[in-house]
TrEMBL record:
Transmembrane regions listed in the UniProt entry: 264-284, 540-566, 587-609, 629-651
Organism taxonomic ancestry: Bacteria, Bacillati, Bacillota, Bacilli, Lactobacillales
Main location class: membrane
Residues covered by the ABC transporter domain: 4-242
Protein name: Peptide ABC transporter ATPase
SMART domains in the record: AAA
Subcellular compartments: Cell inner membrane
Amino acid sequence: MSYLELRDIHKSYYLGKEEFPVLKGIDLDFNLGEFVSILGESGGGKSTLMNIIGGLDREFQGSVSVDGHKLDHKNEKALDTYRRDTVGYIYQAYNLISHLRVIDNVLISLDMTTLNKEQREKRALDLLKRVGLGEQAHKYPSQLSGGQKQRVAIARALASDPKIVIADEPTGALDAQNTEEVLQLLNEIAEEGRLVITVTHSQSVADAGTRIVHMENGKIDHDEHLRDPYEVANVERLESRLLPASVAYKTAFKHFKFNFWRNFLIVLGTSIGLFAVILFSGLGNGISGYINKQVNDMVNPQVITVSRYQKKSQGSQQQAAAAQQTGATTATSGTASTKTSFSNKQIKRLEQVAHVKQVDKVYTASSVATKYNGHSATISSLTNWTASDTSNTVKYGSKPGKGEVVIDRDSVAKKISSKHWKSLIGKTIKLSYKTLNKDNKMVTVTFKAKVSGISATSNSAGMVSDNYVGGATLATAMKNANVDTTASSLAVKIDHLDNVKAVTKKINQLKTSQKRVYSATSVQSMISTIQTYVKLATDVLAAIASISLVVSALMIIVTMYMSVSSRTKEIGILRALGQSKRDIRRLFISESLIIGVASAILATAIAFIGQAVTNQLLSSVDNYAFVQISLTNVVTTFVIAVVIALLAAFLPARRAAKLNPIDALAAD
Ligand SMILES: Nc1ncnc2c1ncn2[C@@H]1O[C@H](COP(=O)(O)OP(=O)(O)OP(=O)(O)O)[C@@H](O)[C@H]1O
């Protein structure tokens, strides 16, 4: 039994329906240690036969057996393994990969062996030294002479320690000196116990081997043994393995680096769309946060405003007034009582609701006359300080305690003490207002209070002025004047912000004799309504920006198609070395992924610079970061970039993987 047996090989090419038979029944036996030259007329089918022996061609009749095992040439994976394990190829046109250094060209084949990294690198260098190119390992193929390139190709063919080395006109492009050296190497290779099959037109090349096979008219017409094959020693051979995914990533990265500027421009183009998406999302976060802060600075978000639930037609005015005072809105629909104030029992009931910490009655006095040192001013609206009020509204001094008052700077303090308005803090002022008492008679409610603080909201943001009396001061004065002190509005403090929503809902659901009593609204619900609109607006902006991502995707698709077209030959070489369709697909997908991830990194970097610049520019509006890019924004950008890259790579990578290795190798 011979090592390699060809039996009754027939092969035809077809032009339309017309058949062109090339191989018409080839039977050949080869043994290890032989250096066989195939001679024959041009166009006689020598290369076709080599492609069949080399496991590149699957469309033929007949059988090829290696080491006693019939090759299943219909099984593509089996052929991939056969090429990877058993065959090394040397071509007339060298077929080196131009964007890889000499050593990397050799390593491609070694990556499919079980050697570790150091061993692979050592073997690659040893092989290059053996062919006299130890010094040239880090050059690119374009920096080598023809003879040197062919020697790199020989080193690569030997890298995976193949038993069969096929050389298709290995000296066709070389001068006499280089031809001599290459033949010497081929003889050494056969001497190592490998089978060397070379295709040649040159009798002198053929004479250098151990055997000459001549083809004529698609058949073997002559088979001449020149000398005995070399002795085959039983040496241990290298084992092959599937190409690890990491190698595809590394190779893709090398190609990315090799075409750095072209790829950089694509990355830049892609990152612009991603940058816009990330920046607009960050702007959305910032503005939402800003609204939240602005409102929460004025009203405690942990407090719910509760008023009597009214039918729309009846109490909407009182409700609107209550809402305005606390900055909240109220829902009014359905049936309810016409009363507008709460009984003590109703207040107690609220106090018993889970998570409620405190219930304050809210009193409001309108047109309050203020007197100090002979000067007077009118407070349009004065309320008692409740849990819903926050110290943020008190700009100077502190919040009002019992018997104290906070007055607005511009509309009150400056009017009663123009120059020394700040020194009003600690001074006692007189306050009075007119209202109806319980007997429906107009009375004047009068009281004194010490100024504990001054607010300054009347001029900014168009807010009404903030004036507050602390403790029960206002209620006591009202009682003294026989004015009704039942409250129409309650400030209900909740133990934790997280419970506000649930408690608001709960209070709204409370019923007395089947009737709804309470109408509760939280400032949080108002903020979230505004934030919904802000989010909608910034989402629309981000969506518009994402249109440019479609352009980015198209750009990557075009680049990948270009990459596949310009690398057709490389695909053929890699397939001939034993890489599978999956390896080729992975190579192009990883290249696209590198572009996608690099774009996301660049977009994130530009977005953070954009964030810093925008926030700096807007710092004159308010000392607040209006752009706030979150980790979620960054992660989303990376996910988008990866998805785009994968989608863009899908078709080109599929096309690359589907290329017929023989056609790919024949590409210019
Ligand atoms: N893909 C193909 N489609 C159609 N015909 C083909 C194809 N490849 C080769 N042929 C034809 O098959 C015949 C054999 O080609 P092959 O390349 O095997 O010959 P060869 O003996 O190696 O020639 P040369 O010595 O000139 O390289 C030629 O006539 C060629 O035109």
